[in-house]
User: Which sequence fits this backbone?
């Protein structure tokens, strides 16, 4: 049985500044952050088995629709970094939660607590 890694967040995307910020937030929250490029596969994600998957943008989530459909079978919460104007679009593309810009530590904590209530 492959159990979820409750202290792991998988970050999908290529934004060094945002990755650094989220990495600092994750570390402060007791999580391990694994950064993956935009070309993630369901196999790689299954092997990591994160508690939460974060896409760095709504556009990236839109481009990754085939992957998002596959992720539905794994029952992993999908979070996307987006603006409030793109929140409805992000949900249409499969996001369970939105981490709204400007991204703050409190916002990060709130999303994680909601997406991963067992931690």
Assistant:
């Amino acid at each position: 049985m492959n159990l979820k890694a409750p202290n792991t967040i998988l970050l999908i995307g290529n934004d060094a500044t945002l990755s650094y910020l989220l990495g600092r937030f994750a570390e402060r929250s007791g999580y391990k952050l694994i950064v993956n490029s935009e070309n993630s596969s369901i196999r790689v994600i299954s092997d990591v088995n994160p508690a939460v998957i974060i896409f760095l943008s709504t556009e990236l989530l839109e481009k990754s629709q085939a992957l998002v459909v596959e992720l539905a079978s794994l029952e992993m919460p999908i979070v996307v970094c987006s603006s409030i104007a793109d929140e409805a679009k992000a949900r249409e593309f499969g996001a369970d939660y939105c981490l709204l810009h400007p991204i703050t530590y409190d916002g990060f904590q709130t999303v994680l607590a909601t997406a991963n209530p067992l931690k």
Observations:
- Strands lie at 5-12, 32-36, 50-55, 78-82, 97-100.
- The CA atoms of residues 53 and 104 lie 18 Å apart.
- The domain at 5-115 is CATH 3.40.50.2300 (Rossmann fold).
